[in-house]
Amino acid sequence: MARPHPALIEIVAGRQAAPPADEMEFVESAGEHRLAGLAFWAAEEGFIELGTAARRDLAGAKLAIVAHNRKVAGAAASLMSELEAAGHQAAIFKGVASESRWYPESGTRPSTDADLLLRPGGGDLDALIRELVPDHPLEGRISRLVERGHIQSIDFQWNGIWIDLHFDPFKVGVPLPGLDRLWDHLGEVELDGGVLRALGPEVSLLQAALHLQKDRFSRLYGFADVAFIAASPGLDRELARGLAGDFGLAVHFNETLAVVGDVLRLPIPYDPGLRSAVWRAIWPERSRLRGTVGMTRRVRTHYWIPFTMRGRRLDAFRFWYRKVVPPGDIVDYMHPDTSGPYPLRVIQYRSRLIKERHARNREQRRAGQI
User: Fold this and answer.
1) Is pLDDT of 1 > 70?
2) Is the CB of residue 333 less than 8 Å from the CB of residue 138?
């Protein structure tokens, strides 16, 4: 299984779907594209007819999503409270925040972790992380790595849930001037029995579009994120386009909206005069919606984003240099199992990654997936 079942596209687009000839194939596809909860909701609401076995499997998946999302929301609320107490502001986005605002009900949008954007200028970042996560492997080095553009977020566990604490919600590899503007476009979301600060719909739409592009349009749930936010009442489309333009991401945003509208056959507005043949060559139609396989193929395609941003060619070369010759601190963090002098450690982890990629390719070829 790779391409989504056609009925899933109809469900995401909000249309009536024909009953699937093979219901278990439909259930498997829904799981691969992270739409099991939404598929069950669609069956309950009459958008698709499914038998008892398929409904039971989807119901089980939805209940698991509800349980996990509840933990994610609780961890996010707890951490945001701790950050506020320490004099730092944060805003939640993606995941449970998107589900609460733009999905039909709990359990229809899965979340792996909690994504928070930390407002800059709140104080000593290293001291904050030292207080929150005393044993973080980058302890004492985070401020320097952020300032030099080597990292744009850090991961750690909080109350048993993984947190992705962002310093830039878009993470395209190069510094984006004017990120402070995002704090002028906030919203609120009800989670864990309270109201949390969240990125506004316009910023969320831009972020969802870039995230879908970075994932190479592999899974249908990313299309749902963009489509649902784009259809939200009160969305200021001009503001979203203006932000994309200010950050040098107008083409990326516009092309992604065009792709989502085309795949879902929905009238999502985009600018037909702002198309890019180069963009479409890097993110071609044939590579979209390949599910799990798509997430493991062409995994460095997003490295081209800086090169396709207007006026950022020098920054793009610097970004690529950092990828080819990563700082020692990043090697320590990402590949702690390597040893020896720096050049040897780089050779060790690159050799391992190549072997893993070749092994994965062999398995996918044997399974007829590529």
Assistant:
1) no
2) yes
